[in-house]
Amino acid sequence: EAPAETETEAPATSHEHTRTGMSKASLKQAYIDNLFYIQGRFREVATPHDLYMAAAFTVRDRMLERWVKSAQVYKSSRARTVCYLSAEYLLGPHLANNLVNLGIAEVAQRAGEELDLDFKAILEEEEEPGLGNGGLGRLAACYMDSLATVQIPAIGYGIRYEFGIFDQIIEDGWQVERSDTWLRNGNPWEIPRPKISFPVMYGGHTEHYRDQAERPRVRWIPDMVISGVAYDTPVLGYGVGNVNLLRLWKAEATESFDFQTFNVGDYYGAVHAKIEAETISKVLYPNDDPEAGKELRLKQQYFFVSCSIQDMIRLHLNTVGPLETFHEKFVAQLNDTHPAIAVAELMRLLMDDHAVTWDDAWATTRATFCYTNHTLLPEALETWSVALFERLLPRHLEIIYEINRRFLDEVRVRYLGDEERVARMSLIDEAGGRRIRMAHLAVVGSRAVNGVAALHSELIKTTLLKDFYEMAPERFHNVTNGVTPRRFIVVSNPRLAELITEVCGHDRWIRDLDSLRELEAHADDPKLQARWREVKTAAKRDLAVWLKRHAGVLLDPQTMMFDIQAKRLHEYKRQHLNVLHIIRVYQRLKQNPNLGMVPRAFIFGGKAAPGYYMAKLMIKLINAVAEVINNDPQVNGYIRVAFMPDFNVKNGQRLYPAADLSEQISLAGKEASGTGNMKFSMNGALTVGTLDGANIEIREEVGAENFFLFGMTAEEVRRKQDEGYRPWDYYHGDQELKSDIDLIASGLFSHGDTNLFRPLTEHLIHQDPFMVLADYRAYLECQDRISTVYDRPAEWDRMSILNVARMGKFSSDRSIREYAERIWSIEPQPLGA
Ligand code: GPU
């Protein structure tokens, strides 16, 4: 236990104090020591980065003792452990978050002040690990925070990408990608574990033989072996002693492989093999949906899955023992299908390496895995060609065939003569080049399947996995996503956190978000409303300063409503619907310059997949519209448009606190959950949204009267599509809509170039797969209502307060507790702070 010190105690001098002491004196001493002994610097010559590193090591030291203790307790109690398998972790900066979770944010700040340090600048110095694309990766990071906070023993397994999600810069309005070099200056939060390393095999062939006991066995003779080395990052819970483990794998050449080649005198070959091995964990695929057929991507997935399952088996053999009880020790959650190959890998390791029979291995495997689905979009459902599998993972293909054979026998027995159903449910899609359906593998190999919001989970049962649901309805669940209030309120919006704490009279809400309900009683209090508004305006001011510097746009935080849409660029998320509204307001203002409208700043942020042409064109369109509007003195006192470059976790933390209005306008049925919607609303933004994903549940919680709803329901969308949707009719049936689209096509926003945006406008008029035109009118009307309400500050503030007060459900702590109870059957292992 760290000694409970007070500031009145004598200055820290002992070695122990400088490593663990939490007093201001200890922190100051430790900081100077770390600067000197780790960075080799003293104050006068330290760079900003040195100053950051010293802070990071000072904080890390204070986590390690708890980490070791957690590991000891988990081991001796043989605690059941969750293994979260995810190809992505979008972690965001660690320093501020760890300070908060350690409970030393304030004392550290005071220590910093006394050392004459610029605390803010030190926090800014941290390069975030962007090891994910968007919602799915950020969800994994929120869940790691909550697992530790609700005291569930957990290991997060993933890939230590050398290059995470690209940095986005905007040039001439276009997105330009720059490689993310987050490891350039070292990573103080990770601890390399060179001794924890596993071989991972690829290619070659299999041999079937009989072992000494005459049992049929299989051995895989690969033609390439690499090794995965563990890099561990401690994940501390808020206000508790529990520290969980994030274990990310780095790919390296195996020593023996390299050495063999070298002996033969093939020096070039040896170096080449090393490079080929290291390529596997080199870079994150920057797509929100799968890269069709990319061999390296499959290699990555198998790489981290194989290391992780081998590690789990090693841990089990070291602590508990017999493999029959593996599923009692571990439950493994598959974060979408990216790690679904784990089903075949655990089967292989149990049977081929540990001589377990098929039936026993299958029982263990099925009891170990659970699968979370994160999308219904057909293009985002992973399949791999059988040919690629055969070449890369021949043993796994055999196992998948056998799983499929046995599974389809069950289907046939259950549904006599229904061969169409058999074909639909098969793990192999036989139409148009045989492909393995990873979602089917994940479902068949798991004991539970869940969606990420109520609507999404229903649609899984009625559409995507209907046949599977009919066969085993008890295995289907919903766990609505959540986000961590530590990072997304306390760290990113300290002013709001302080105000909430003052009004509630406690800071318990940080771990018990439901207690924000106590704010409800004060929603009409003019004094609170005034302070609430001040907090919001201060955050808007901060954002305005940042955007002035980084986007060159001047926004007025005092008069303008900050209307923000921040998320990956995707047609289904409909950033272009937002743009059409901006153009409508622009045209109205041009027609009537005296229109007494509520001034608005339209702010966007988000990356486009580098190969997604339409998404990139949408970024260009936003910036093109911004250029015209921001430079038009007739309107720019009323409206401005800004595109925040490089929307990532760090920059997101600047946006959420500053939003008045949160845009959640996806076509109903397409956004599985959304999590940005929760972050905005938790920070007092009101939502304009469709009945999609978690929007539905947010509206339910905050009350329909405190949510701006528009647009078709998922059901209406389906009906309209069945009838044959004709965007052309909407285009011609709505004068204003036509004139907005025509204005884009006219070249007004493209210096007279009438071709630039044509792919976008034509696509809208003729295809419009995400029904922008069908929801346009409802969206405009809703936006007009929003302006009216914003003009009545007391009403708006009341709604804003009620939004925050009623967001308790969307803490990721609640999500994790639901997983623990309903899906994992796991109990907390409390450890005191
Ligand atoms: N999501 Br599948 C991703 O960010 N990436 C993916 O590859 C897939 C899903 C998102 C969903 O689009 C979003 O609606 C959801 O909130 C998030 O996963 C977390 O569940």
Q: Brief overview, please?
A:
By secondary structure, the protein is of the alpha/beta class. Helix content is 48%, strand content 15%. The strands form 6 sheets. The chain has a 9-stranded mixed beta sheet, sandwiched between helices. Strands 21-20-19-22-23-24 form a 6-stranded parallel beta sheet, with helices on both faces.
Tell me what the structure shows.
The protein has 833 residues and is α/β, with parallel strands linked by helices. The protein folds into three domains: 1-76 and 93-127, no CATH class; 77-92 and 128-481 and 817-824, 3-Layer(aba) Sandwich (Rossmann fold), CATH 3.40.50.2000; 486-711 and 772-807, Glycogen Phosphorylase B (Rossmann fold, 3-Layer(aba) Sandwich). Helix content is 48%, strand content 15%. The chain contains 34 helices and 24 strands. A nine-stranded mixed sheet has the order 7-10-11-4-1-12-13-17-18, with helices on both faces. The chain has a six-stranded parallel sheet with strand order 21-20-19-22-23-24, sandwiched between helices. Strands 14-16-15 form a three-stranded antiparallel sheet. A hairpin with a 6-residue loop joins strand 10 (224-236) and strand 11. Helix 12 (342-353) packs across helix 15 (394-414) and helix 29 (727-733) packs across helix 30. The longest helix is centred in the first third of the chain and has 29 residues, at 48-76. 5-bromo-1-(beta-D-glucopyranosyl)pyrimidine-2,4(1H,3H)-dione binds at residues 133-136, 139, 288-289, 336, 374-375, 380, 452, 481, 671-675, 693. 5-bromo-1-(beta-D-glucopyranosyl)pyrimidine-2,4(1H,3H)-dione is lined by residues 133-136, 139, 288-289, 336, 374-375, 380, 452, 481, 671-675, 693.
